[in-house]
Amino acid sequence: MTSQHEISTVSSPPLETYKDFKLIDSFQFFNYGAVYKYRSTRTGLYITLAKISSPIMKAYMTLRTRPSDHDGIPHVLEHMVFLGSQDYPFKGLLDKVANRCFAQGTNAFTQSTNTTFELTTAGTEGFYRLLPVYLDHILYPSLTDSGFLTEIHHIDGNGQDSGVVYNEMLGRENSPDELIYNLFNEVMYDGSEGYQYNYGGKVANLRELTVEKVRKFHHEYYSPKNFNIIVVGNTTPEELIDAVQPMEQKILSLTKIEDPMSEFTVWKTPLPPLTQSVTKEIVYPSDDETSGHHVVIGWRAAPWKDLLTSYALDTLWNCLTVGDIAPLRKELVENESGDICCADLYCGVEKSFDNIHRVWFLNVEADKVKLIVDKFFDFMRNIKIDLDYLRLVINRDKLDVLRQFETNPHETFSHDLIEDFLYSTSNEDCRNLLDASKHASILLQKDEQYWKDLIETYILKPPFVALYASPSSERVRELSEENMQRLEQQKKALGEQKLKELEERLAKAELDNARSLDQKTLEEQFPIPSLAKIEEIHVATYRNDNNPNFSKTEYDKKLEQLLENHTIPLPFFFQLSSIPSQFVDLFCMMDSSNIPLELKMYIPLFLAVNFSCDLKYDDQYVKKDQVIMSLMRESVSYSYGCGYQDHQESSRNFHASLFAELLQFRLTFEIDKYHRLAEWTKHFLHDTIYTPEIIETKIQVLLSEIPLSKVSPEAVMSQGLKHMLVQPQSNHNVTSFLLQEKFLNETLAKLKTHPETVIDDLNRLRNILNKPENIRIHVVLDVNYFGPNNYKDIMSTWASVFNPKNNDESLKLEPYHRLCKWTNELTNMSEGRGILLGMGSADSGNLIKTHRGITNYELYHDRHALSVAINFLTMEEGPFWVKLRGKGLCYGSSISSNVEKGTVSLYLSRVSNISKTFAECKAILEAVCSDDESKESVFVLNENVLNSARATVIVDKLHGAETIISACQVRFLSNTLFGGSKNFYDSLQDIGKVTVEDVKIAIKKYILPLFRDKEGTLFICDNIAQVKQEEYPLRDALQKIGYLTTYHSLKEYLAAELGITTSYSNEMSIGDDVEGSDEEDDEEMEDEEQ
């Protein structure tokens, strides 16, 4: 690891003043990028640039926003900004322009302290063309009555509440994480300047909110003095300031800015003291009361400016909870004596002007809910400080932060720069915030007493907030009855005449929103940028299989020449990608497609155990804790999973991603430990020892994850669709938590009576996976690190660890269709079926419909045509966007193509009326395919619209290869696993060849079949009260033709569909992350990989 200082002077000193923008600060951050900070002396507007090398430009335009109640106005404004502006008074114009600028649409997010508008483009040409339009929308939005009606909240002619924001918050409001988060803030921040309020908006408040209140909030907070345009990309401060000049002039012509260089003092007020501990209880709706208890403890922490203490607290929490040997995790989660208290826990510091920190215990055992707080404090009072382990964690955290600047520079830089804007009071704050190595160096010198004092000061001594959340089936009934009564009363109070007026008002609003800039003007002002101007990232690749179908680039050939006479035969497939980096990444993939089904069921358990068990090698026997300590000491990070996973994915137990038949583990080391990386690879493939005690602990941990997934409608729907879609032998099926609950409980019983049987099965599984013909290794490193005299070490390292392969034999890599053979051998889609599942934990509806798609990756033109067709339909201001989200029918809608499965899928999320929304989807497709010349312009497919759709496809693919490490993975995925014959940039050029006729054919061939009544697979999860209603047109129509089966509970579904009748209620529940537990969990919902 280099000892170069991370903060230094930029190589070329920037201008102190440029066009009335004054330089605040500039510095070079290691070799990852240079930071420049300017502020306008005339308007107070901030500009911050992190200049990095990347083809992707990203802007994070941030305003401090402070709620004063639960109306959620910061979140509401985030949505309304996109509905038109003073200079561009057309709803959706911003997104139409974005589609023509190689932009990945437009996006925004609201947090408790800020609203940030994001802009992502490929190249600078489109970025600077779009930026002024975006700025006008942010600072001078239209904020019309009609936009408020459709986007935020309205009542339709049936008396139903709807709206995009309303549906979004309705889908979240009664989830346990949302209830806990909001109550915690109300208690912890009571009396503060705004942290205590629900910035997203409570649905009851959204029903009463007015657009006038939104306009007033915008006037107060959307000021140039409170606005920072943060950009991460390959541009200059001068180019950025030039692009902002027109907006500067407009601001000055319309507004008199008083004292422009003064501070906008929001979020700079210390919190009122928390004088005593507070305990609260919460109940949340759930059909299953046997699991799902959560406990949260939180404290005030150090002020934000005390960055070292915040870093120390985060380090302490990581030391206590992250990894299988973390002491608090071993005590409460993976207790080998069997005294397990909870399924998982996560914790850390949460930033504000005065920070707080908390620990969240997930799915606590019911009989330990009231005990876990005392047990936690007892543990912390008696904890033994292990300085060696703490220092190990400090070093790993430091390396992991630096690694993030290589692998994810845009998000890593922007996260710290936004935080700096919100809370800093000096230039040194930003430097200190970025300089994790400096904090790490200081903490490495701290003694045992420092850490004891930290625990005493911030955990044991101060008052705390404790929340207990419990599931309640009674709450399901109460909410259902309350909502039905409210709607009945609302309809009655409004009356037929008023409902008719509301329907007419909504129709008028939709008509007002439909006004648009004429196509000719749009094309003239915003021509499509040149693809040739976008910086290309080139990856040099070497493969040892001599596959003639692998198309070598000039960079590949140069690497091959460099390694000539330095390669050694290996017994497995080996791919090397050379990039500039101080780290080395290892992706080891094991083909499981030929493993018998009875062994395949062990895959989640095998992955969890294999990387947390004893090792035996070279006559040494190393116990699990020492194995993990050694691995942590030598590695930067590691993870495992089922299916191909990129460098940022963490381990997930009940999930199979793309190429599900490949089991993968990833290791990241510093490059000077390259030989040790190879040895660790051998350990995990050949040297693992499975013991009954370790297996039992891991089974208990795995079982604890399942109950939380069972109350997530999205997770149940995802797995339910897979059971209908793929073969039983597919890893998509065998990793299902719905099946694994029964299997793991049976394995646990078997382990107690015949442990040798379980151990033998795990050994058999490993010994099939580790056969050379089943192994694929991809190494990403900097070849130049080794130098000409040591190039041979790159492969000889592996030969010294594994037996070399005979020179006469040639490797043959199985084609991708073998790897997904249990996935793309789909059930007969022409005789499909559907399931409608009512769940008490579902606040709104979700739907997936799947049909046959493209199965051959080499059909480049067909795949591109389908991608363009999907983008035409679903891109911002495309037909789906306008007719579904624009009308407030649902929060999210998407169509995806998955070549590995050979499917095309429709996904609808947070839907207020499934029947109406699905019918609208079908009507959209029929209108697009119609030859009626009088149809609405949004349905018209012509060359002009096609230009935008093609551009969005291109930028989506470029976004997947925005850094050199991600470009390596795209190359491996497309050219090695899929066996594609074209390189990435040639394939991009082909997208431009897709014609209008190609798109129409793709829609009719692949997308329209999704709406054939008896074909494909359909899975719907909806609120149980909705499912039980007499009127549910989609249910009634599909049941009538024998296509749909309806279930009123998960228990009923499991018994009928999967033959699971036993309830394993004694087990705990867990989620990888409570706040992400309701996220989409299926590749069907995602676009196909490159």
Automatic annotation (TrEMBL):
SUPFAM superfamilies the record matches: LuxS/MPP-like metallohydrolase
GO molecular function annotation: metal ion binding
InterPro entries named among the record's database cross-references: Metalloenz_LuxS/M16 (IPR011249), Pept_M16_N (IPR011765), Peptidase_M16_C (IPR007863)
Domain of life: Eukaryota
Keywords of this entry: Coiled coil
Pfam family, one: Peptidase_M16
Domain Peptidase M16 N-terminal residue range list: 67-150
Biased composition (Acidic residues): 1070-1090
Entry coiled-coil feature ranges: 477-519
Region (Disordered): 1067-1090
Coiled coil in keyword set: yes
Protein name per the record: Peptidase M16C associated domain-containing protein
